[in-house]
From TrEMBL, chain A:
GO terms for cellular component: plasma membrane. Keywords: Cell membrane, Membrane, Transmembrane, Transmembrane helix. Its main location: membrane. InterPro entries: ABC_transp_permease. This is ABC transporter permease. It is a multi-pass membrane protein. It holds the Pfam family BPD_transp_2. It is found in: Cell membrane.
TrEMBL record, chain B:
InterPro entries: ABC_transp_permease (IPR001851). Pfam families: BPD_transp_2. Signal peptide: none annotated. The keyword Membrane applies. GO terms for molecular function: transmembrane transporter activity. It is a multi-pass membrane protein. The chain crosses the membrane at residues 15-39, 59-82, 94-112, 118-139, 148-166, 203-222, 294-313, 325-345. This is Branched-chain amino acid transport system / permease component. It is found in: Cell membrane. Keywords: Cell membrane, Membrane, Transmembrane, Transmembrane helix. The keyword Secreted does not apply. It comes from wastewater metagenome. GO terms for cellular component: plasma membrane.
């Protein structure tokens, strides 16, 4: 499967790897937005998750500890955001920005002593029999465990959102917090839960970068993926399956830049590196053109603070 | 049973509105000292190193204006947008484009000793920042695309563009392959206002921007339209205020200010093009605008405070061996606290009887 030195199978296999942090962070953002909370702090939560997971792994030599700590760190960051926007009813856009600025600084600060530390990545898990299938095997069944786990989390989020009672309540809170409140659901509590779960997933997405690919810590490691994750939720018109598809699309584009660089294509490497950001803008433009459709898909209470009355 | 309860104030508290930034500053300071203590540094000494030492000399005060100038200028520009409800958060990218455009002029006229070089650079940089901000403005008004995400994505694109340029077309041909441009000629750089310190006219430009902002917001009908569009978009619509026009205006003013700040950086303290020309001034300026209550006087003080935090971070790195990224931690905390304390402008804490809950 090679065209002029470009191996499509390797590229597609790497696409899943590159898409995984976006899948995790995008699903996290999806959960928060579905309850009506726009959290622009994803970039900051991913960075703090990435650095915390990295430090935990270096100190304990346990990958599981690394991932667990990254989720806790992401959730802790998210709790600051939830406190601001849900308890103190602060503006969600400004609070999300604050969380990102804080996360950028905090992660750089925490990670300074660990910068340049070499660690072992995560071994690939070859699934017996399936991994031997030609073409599909190497793409789908020779991945690391976190790729499988992220797909499982995606499936769980889809099932939860559309096939459980709790998922229905979550959607109700996002569409009409007043009705949900009138029915006796605790709107603020549910939003806290969604934002915290989203933070844990963003943290895990960050740790996928620091512990798996490219498994290192440098300042600003996440490089805008948190923002792309926020954009993905809009692209996906607030549907988790489409969030995942979008994440792999962007993973593929990012990886394509690397592959072309490797082939010595005479395009400046910076132009190739800017592909995912430009692609984000292009896709956003295409998908937000239809105002009515955007408004129909968007959780009706998005960014609006909720005050319980009566 | 008694419990604490938040209650909406009948009128927003003006006292709280003005006290909030001070409370936020005090809380940031308190938490900062706790952080230093946790790192095993004596808090009082850390306080001295961070907040006093950087500015206890004339030279230090000059440095303060060097850092405050871009923060105040950009915050003044962004305030127009924030008042109108337009979220330009890509000022960092607009700053970089300003630096690129102004720097290109400086390099094209390298060695030309004429008075017009610097003014031309300032013009080019301002237009460059405006052009970069025009992209989200166009996409917002024409295709309904989120200006938040577009302006932010363009920050990364601008930064990559600058890295490309200093490694390619604008690289110093005699620079042994280092990723940097030539040093600008004297005619393309700001000279210090006072001999011996680095303070330069960019600080005066920033002050001028604050005066301009004051007149725009309080004296002009346009300012009234901007405020109405932000506070009550529907009312603004019925009053015939054109939302697209507000979006364009906000982004062009914000982008132009950021672009101008970018030229001031490359023509001032930097003096050439480097792969990285800003320690995230474009993001810190968002905090300055908020901390300054979106008001010119507030922005002046907030800008000076934020500049001090930058200097303090550098000072702490040298004297206390604390990474200077502690600056970012302080900046984030400051914005957190101001957002949280703002709640008490509209709400107050009250003791309430449980049995009466729900009656207010």
């Amino acid at each position: 499967m090679e065209i002029a030195g470009f191996n499509i199978v390797t590229w597609l296999a790497a696409t899943l790897v590159m898409g995984t942090p976006l899948v995790l962070a995008g699903l996290g953002e999806f959960l928060a937005e579905k309850t009506g909370v726009l959290n622009l702090g994803t970039e900051g939560m991913m960075l703090v998750g990435a650095v915390s997971g990295f430090i935990a792994f270096v100190e304990t030599d346990s990958q599981i500890a690394g991932f667990a700590v990254s989720m806790l760190a992401g959730a802790a960051m998210a709790s600051l955001f939830a406190l601001l926007t849900q308890t103190f009813r602060a503006n969600q856009v400004a609070s999300g920005l604050a969380l990102t600025i804080f996360g950028v600084g905090l992660s750089a600060f925490m990670g300074r002593p660990y910068e340049g530390e070499g660690i072992q990545g995560l071994a690939k898990l070859h699934i017996p029999l399936l991994s031997d299938i030609p073409v599909l095997g190497p793409i789908l069944f020779q991945q690391d465990p976190m790729v499988y786990l992220s797909i499982a989390i995606g499936a769980a989020v889809i099932y939860f959102t559309y096939h459980t009672r709790a998922g229905l309540v979550m959607r109700a809170v996002g569409e009409s917090p007043e009705s949900a409140h009138a029915m006796g659901y605790r709107v603020i509590g549910i939003r806290y839960l969604a934002v915290l779960s989203g933070g844990a997933l963003a943290g895990l997405g960050g740790a996928y970068m620091s512990l798996v690919e490219p498994h290192l810590w440098v300042e600003g490691l996440v490089a805008g993926r948190g923002w792309i994750a926020v954009a993905l939720v809009v692209f996906a018109s607030w549907r988790p399956g489409r969030v995942m598809a979008g994440a792999y699309l962007f993973g593929g584009i990012t990886r394509l830049g690397f592959e072309l660089q490797g082939l010595g294509v005479p395009i400046p490497s910076q132009a190739l590196s800017s592909l995912p950001y430009i692609a984000t803008i292009v896709v956003l433009v295409i998908l937000s053109r239809d105002r009515t459709k955007l408004r129909l898909n968007r959780p009706a209470s998005l960014t609006k603070p909720f005050f319980a009355t009566g | 049973m008694m419990s604490l309860k938040f209650e909406k104030r009948p009128e927003p508290s003006r006292a709280m509105l003005y006290a909030a930034p001070l409370i936020a500053g005090a809380l940031t300071l308190a938490f900062g000292l706790v952080i230093f203590a946790a790192l095993g540094k004596a808090p009082l000494n850390a306080f001295y190193v961070f907040f006093i030492q950087p500015v206890n000399s004339l030279y230090g005060l000059g440095e303060l204006t060097i850092k405050a100038a871009p923060l105040i200028l950009i915050a003044a520009g962004l305030t127009v947008g924030f008042r109108a409800g337009v979220w330009n958060i890509g000022a960092e990218g607009q700053l970089v484009l300003g630096g690129i455009c102004g720097g290109t002029v400086a390099l094209v006229f390298h060695g030309v000793d004429a008075w017009w070089v610097l003014p031309l650079m300032l013009l080019a940089g301002t237009l460059g920042g405006m052009a970069w901000a025009a992209i989200p403005a166009l996409l917002r008004t024409r295709f309904n695309t989120s200006e938040i995400l577009v302006s932010l994505m363009l920050v990364y694109v601008a930064e990559l563009l600058l890295v490309y340029l200093v490694n390619g077309p604008l690289q110093n041909p005699e620079g042994f392959g280092f990723p940097e441009s030539r040093l600008f000629s004297e005619s393309a750089t700001w000279s210090p206002l006072i001999e011996g310190i680095r303070m330069n006219p960019s600080f005066l430009i920033a002050l001028g921007a604050l005066v301009g902002l004051y007149f725009l917001l309080s004296r002009l009908y346009l300012g009234f339209q901007i405020r109405t569009a932000g506070l009550a978009p529907d009312a603004a619509h019925y009053a015939g205020i054109n939302a697209s026009r507000m979006t364009w205006l906000s982004l062009l003013i914000g982008g132009g200010a950021a672009g101008l700040a970018g030229v001031n950086e490359v023509a001032g303290p930097i003096g050439q093009l480097l792969p990285d020309i800003s320690p995230e001034y474009g993001f810190a300026a968002i905090i300055v605008a908020y901390l300054g209550r979106l008001h010119p006087v507030g922005i002046l003080f907030a800008g000076l405070l934020m500049a001090l935090i930058y200097l303090g971070g550098e000072s702490a790195q040298i004297a206390l061996q604390v990474p200077d990224s502690v600056t970012g931690v302080f900046q984030g905390m400051l914005l957190f606290f101001i957002l949280a304390v703002d709640f008490f402008v509209n709400f107050r804490l009250r003791m309430a009887r449980r049995s009466q809950e729900g009656t207010n």
